[in-house]
Design brief:
The protein is mainly alpha-helical and 307 residues long. It has helices at 5-16, 22-31, 37-41, 43-47, 58-84, 91-110, 112-116, 121-127, 140-149, 170-174, 193-216, 218-224, 227-230, 233-262, 277-281, 283-286, 297-301; strands spanning 263-264, 267-268. It has a two-stranded antiparallel ribbon.
Length: 307
């Protein structure tokens, strides 16, 4: 079989463009081995990341489910990053990315049946104590998804939004993010161990991230698009779908799962991180809305009330 001269010329041009010798790279191919599925996916490494803390079989369901979530969160951030760093965004490009992200969240939402119906309640309420003080709100990737989706003011605890604006220092705004309520007594300022160690690990990284996403989040980017793009009906539909999926459908799937395991005998059990999870999770309390201008006043007033 003859070698296509066009391909060799393209390879030569490629490597010359970065001051590399094409022959050296071609010689390297002589010593490389063919790729296999298990090497490419890193199957062995992936399947050895599940380390149980208890002897209960259903803990493995819980552990793997959350690892799958984190992989999907990474896919979502990958798509958002492409939007954040692209110039001259078209309605078609923006809509395509938004719908990709929405589909990932659709998968996340529907997959909650794995948790809700896939674990023994008695087993869960035994192994969950070994997970204390870890909490789902410590997912750094999920927090980044929120930061990258909307302006910071829309993530502020609903009780404090009127006292915070775009001129508020990031450090101060951070102290009033809605998920702080999961681990902070606002009357005393005291934080739980769960929130404290989360901030020790990620706070500086979050503030650096927010300094970029403050003007490069999906909502800010959308508002800078040309008027005809912002009025594109398909794009608006996609934006609303994403907003509702993340902040109501996904949240309620999580809420109903927690209610299934933790609302025992009509009394809500404290979450592993110590949060008052009923008020922390339900959308009618925190009213997280990524794209508020795309909803009618009535829709905003009723946010999370009828689910």
């Amino acid at each position: 079989m003859s070698i296509d001269n066009k391909i060799t010329d393209q390879l030569k041009n490629k490597y010359e463009a970065i001051d590399q010798n094409v022959n050296t790279h071609l010689e390297g191919l002589l010593h490389s081995k063919p790729i296999d599925y298990w090497d490419y996916i890193q199957t062995d490494a992936l399947l050895n990341l599940q380390i149980q803390r208890t002897v209960f079989p259903d803990e493995m369901v819980f552990l793997m489910y959350h690892q799958v979530n984190e992989l999907l969160f990474k896919m979502i951030l990958w798509e958002i990053d492409q939007v954040a760093k692209k110039e001259d965004i078209t309605a078609s490009f923006f809509e395509t990315k938004i719908m990709r992200i929405s589909r990932y969240f659709d998968v996340l939402t529907s997959s909650f049946t794995v948790m809700k119906d896939g674990m023994d309640v008695e087993q869960y309420n035994k192994f969950r104590h070994t997970l204390t003080p870890a909490s789902g709100f410590q997912s750094a990737q999920y927090r980044k998804i929120e930061f990258a989706s909307t302006e910071l003011i829309n993530l502020i605890d609903n009780r404090f939004r009127e006292s915070i604006d775009r001129n508020t220092p990031f450090e101060h705004a951070f102290e009033h993010l809605y998920w702080q309520a999961a681990g902070k007594d606002y009357k005393t300022g005291k934080k739980t161990y769960t929130l404290t160690v989360f901030e020790e690990k990620y706070k500086d990284e979050f503030i650096r991230f927010v300094k970029f996403t403050n003007t490069h989040n999906l909502w800010s980017i959308f508002k800078k698009l040309p008027k005809d793009v912002r009025e594109d009906k398909d794009l608006i539909k996609a934006m609303r779908h994403y907003d509702y999926t993340v902040n109501i459908t996904w949240v309620m799937a999580h809420y109903n799962t927690a209610n299934h395991y933790l609302n025992i005998g009509g009394k809500a059990v404290e979450a592993t991180g110590g949060s008052e999870w009923v008020k922390y999770m339900h959308p009618k309390y925190q009213r997280r809305i990524f794209f508020p201008d795309l909803w009618s006043q009535q829709e905003l007033d009723d946010w999370g009330k009828n689910v």
